[in-house]
Amino acid sequence: xxxxxxxxxxxxxSAVLKPQSPRDISLLLSFLSASSLGKVTVAARGAGHSIHGxxxxxxxxxxxxxxxPAEIELHKGGEGDVSYADVSGGAMWxxxxxxxxxxxxAPRSWTDYLYITIGGTLSNAGISGQTFKHGPQISNVLQxxxxxxxxxxxxxxxxxNAELFSAVLGGLGQFGIITRARILLQExxxxxxxxxxxxxxxxxxxxxxxxxxxxxxxxxYVEGFIVLNEQSLHSSSIAFPANMDFSxxxxxxxxxxxxxxxxxxxxxxxxKNTNVEQVVEAISVQMSHIASHLxxxxxxxxxxxxxxxxxxxxxxxxxxWEVHHPWLNMFVPKAGIRDLRDLLMDNISxxxxxxxxxxxxxxxxx
Length: 366
Hints:
Elements: H1 2-10, E1 15-17, H2 22-34, E2 42-45, E3 61-64, E4 72-75, E5 83-88, H3 93-101, E6 105-107, H4 118-122, H5 131-134, E7 141-147, E8 153-156, H6 162-168, E9 177-187, E10 191-199, H7 202-213, E11 221-227, H8 230-235, E12 259-268, H9 276-284, E13 294-300, H10 301-305, H11 307-317, H12 337-347
Parallel strand pairs: 1-3, 2-3
Antiparallel strand pairs: 4-5, 5-9, 6-9, 7-8, 7-9, 10-12, 10-13, 11-12
């Protein structure tokens, strides 16, 4: 195996390794660690969605994690025991969702887009509308299998090799390559009540978002977005099947009018003692959205979690998915959110802006 890796390195200034097992990754890194080749950059690539090129290695070696078999083993705990899934680092979240739902289970925390790898998001954070309640995906991992820079395969957890465990989660691949992860599971709801409310005042919008994340026993998901123009209103509604009769006045080019949307969701386990409609009513009466502009729809849990896929397919049909997608994610403290909004509006022209601006609350203790 070492001679194979040597030929890869000497006959090409850069190379791609397509491992068939974690052992292939271990052999590569062991060879590089013991060789006299000097520093060679190695990067793990999942589905290729890294924002700053972390999945590339200039004059180095890219490890294609999707080449690993997408192994998923479910463990359904009995009463008092946790349920979890042991998953290959190159498997996608959509694959884990499909398999776990067959057992009536699902991970607790998600990303908005599911066609990305387990190891990829765990090397970042993994954030979506459930983060306020369950924390990011890296807070819902029980154990990892990691190949270190020396080629050692190490099992780590909060109590075993804890320093490596903490470094690898959110470590951008700098402390090892995640080849397997044990993901915490919970009972999956059968359906989801998905709700959208509209606002014409930013302060009211953010206040209601804070209200919703203060009710984790009732609310299961909270996000929100800025509605700059007709395009941003309708493109964000592709996956939302409710008929919205919201026709806002966006003002003029010189004096634009900006709107905001909160979306939240309540899980429906379809138990006799729970009425989801009543839960949504109890939540919404405390909100201060524009009168008569609250919309709701019931969808399957799978369709709700996979909602961005519909937007992707729409963009693909228009030839817009494969173009460059400039993207920026940032955490902003509560004290600075108004300044960020003003900065955005000072530098964006609502009459021709095409894209999505998400703003949603997280809790620091998660």
